[in-house]
């Protein structure tokens, strides 16, 4: 039997299976299960465990909420997609389980906070569509207001253009 917070975590994580879920619990963003093992390894933080039901212990790794930007930047630079799950009701006035929901999904190409970006470097989000020997390419730097650029080219030129842009993220 699992706890209500464990069921809540699993339900929310199921909606974002390809993202690391940073699950707000009080003063920490916690990760569980495989996410915890990955986060502990990638951020070089302690991997512990937490009881989540009658003797059931699950892997746990967490970071303080006030240090989120630094840890988030490290995960994004490594190419991870991160779902940030906040407490949406006040724990002091909530009866029972605190409401939580994902308020933001951050990927390498969607970062807009200057604190999470490398100075002097564009943060391109690129989309590529290939059809036979031709490719369409669209790109933008969502952290600036430069708009969207589009191009059509042969597949042989696509690799060169991607190398020139050095995108943070490519959508195919």
The number of distinct β-strands equals 10
Give the helices and strands as they follow along the chain. HEEHEEHEEEEEHE
Shape: elongated
Secondary-structure-derived class: alpha+beta
**Roughly how many Å is the radius of gyration?**
19 Å
> Helix amount, in percent?
25-40%
Strand order of the largest sheet: 3-4-2-1-5-6
Low-confidence stretches: none
* Termini gap: 41 Å
Major sheet: 6 strands, mixed
**Helix run count:** 4
- Percent strand equals 35-45%
Instruction: Give average pLDDT, whole number.
Output: 90
Can you give a write-up of this model?
It is built from four helices and ten strands; from the N terminus they run H-E-E-H-E-E-H-E-E-E-E-E-H-E. It has 172 residues and is an alpha+beta fold. A six-stranded mixed beta sheet has the order 3-4-2-1-5-6, with helices on both faces. A four-stranded mixed beta sheet has the order 9-8-7-10. Strand 3 and strand 4 form a beta hairpin. The longest helix has 12 residues. The protein is elongated and about 60 Å long. The chain starts with a helix and ends with a strand. The model has no long low-confidence stretch (mean pLDDT 90).
Topology, element by element:
Elements: H1 4-15, E1 20-25, E2 28-32, H2 33-43, E3 48-51, E4 57-64, H3 68-77, E5 82-87, E6 100-106, E7 124-131, E8 134-141, E9 148-154, H4 155-165, E10 169-171
Parallel strand pairs: 1-5, 7-10
Antiparallel strand pairs: 1-2, 2-4, 3-4, 5-6, 7-8, 8-9
């Amino acid at each position: 039997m699992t706890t209500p917070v464990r069921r809540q975590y699993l339900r929310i994580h199921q909606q974002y299976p390809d993202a690391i879920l940073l699950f707000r619990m009080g003063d920490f963003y916690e990760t569980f299960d495989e996410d915890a093992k990955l986060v502990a390894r990638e951020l070089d933080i302690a991997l512990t465990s937490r009881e989540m039901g009658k003797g059931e212990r699950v892997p746990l790794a967490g970071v303080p909420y006030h240090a989120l930007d630094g840890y988030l930047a490290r995960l994004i630079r490594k190419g991870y997609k991160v779902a940030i799950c906040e407490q949406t009701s006040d724990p002091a006035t909530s009866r029972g389980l605190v409401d939580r929901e994902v308020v933001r999904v951050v990927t390498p190409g969607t970062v807009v906070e200057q604190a999470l970006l490398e100075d002097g470097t564009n943060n391109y989000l690129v989309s590529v569509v290939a059809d036979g020997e031709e490719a369409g390419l669209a790109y933008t730097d969502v952290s600036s207001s430069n708009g969207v650029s589009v191009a059509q080219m042969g597949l042989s030129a696509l690799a060169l253009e991607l190398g020139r842009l050095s995108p943070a993220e490519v959508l195919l």
